[in-house]
Design goal:
Elements lengths: L2 E8 L3 H12 L6 E8 L5 H8 L4 E5 L4 H17 L8 E6 L3 E3 L3 H9 L5 E16 L2 E12 L2 E3 L5 E3 L14 E3 L6 E5 H7 L15 H12 L2 E13 L10 H9 L3 H18 L2 H25 L1 H28 L4 H5 L4
Parallel strand pairs: 1-2, 1-4, 2-3, 6-12
Antiparallel strand pairs: 4-11, 5-12, 6-7, 6-11, 8-9, 10-12
Helix pairs in contact: 1-2, 5-6, 8-10, 9-10
Amino acid sequence: MSKVVVSIISWNHAKYLADVLNSVLAQTYPDISIVVVDNGSTDGSSDLVREKFPEVGLLRNTNNLGFSRAHNQVIAYTRANFTQLNDLEDLFVLVLNPDIILQTDFIAKLMDRAAHRTDIGSAGGKLLRLFQTMDGDLLEKEFSDVVDSTGIRMFKSRRAVDRNSGQRDNGRFERVEEVFGITGAAVLYRLSALVDVAPDGNYFDEDFFAYKEDIDLAWRLRLRGWKALYIPDAIGYHHRHLAGSEKVSILALLRGRKNRSRFLSRLSYRNHLLMLLKNEQLLNVLIDFPRIWFQETRKALYLIFFEPTTWFSAMLDVIRYLPRTLKKRRAIMALARSRAREIRRWFA
């Protein structure tokens, strides 16, 4: 039987950890190990895991090393500790956000569809939104029927969104199907696929730190020929404080930016540009150039006029990372199996 190692990163997420860990421990799939990485938390995350969940593996980082590097630590741990007992193709890593709650058969449903298909590099289920509301003095969880994600959709403009985000789960999203990729909030990776696209161990690009590293990895897997599968009967719930939508107006986007920190805005813009530099194929750029140019010009002008510090710091980062980004690009393109037209079909 294939083994699943669950990777959860906590950076001051102690208030969510009990729920996510209980939901993983309640899974019906029999062969699961759990590793929590405490990324320099100051809220007692490590103490909670050690005292209430002694069966869970715990790695502690002195500082916040970022989403990418912390998950890479768990993937490296999986390779080091389980490859002698399992073939590489039979090892899977489930990357989970700490603010996720899974239905008890979530992992079993994913594995039932993905484990026996050796062309599947990643798989994900249907994520619905979980809200917290106050009922008097009690904090209540509201498990909604609003879709958080059914995979990643990439537009011809190279804007990436969570598929069907913000829509009601009214029976329209029940087909098992391939998607461009799976959101990093809850994604199952075949370990051999990760090794295949990152022989140097940089599975999630550590230059990204956090934000859009899941889209970058999805793109690299696609370029290498691995498939991503959406499995709707695997259901999880994702805490949401602010509700976004796949189809959103420019005004709504601008309002949303007001609630995002400048640091996250910098990471988002920087990582988006680095992702394009690494993964774009020239023919696809030429075909979609008008849409890409319009989207990138609009974004850059907004930042220059309304968030100049964000734009300037992001561009400095891009210049600083450019030599090694181009080196990564050469390695990615040398490994690529998918032709431009095969990738282009995923740009909506």
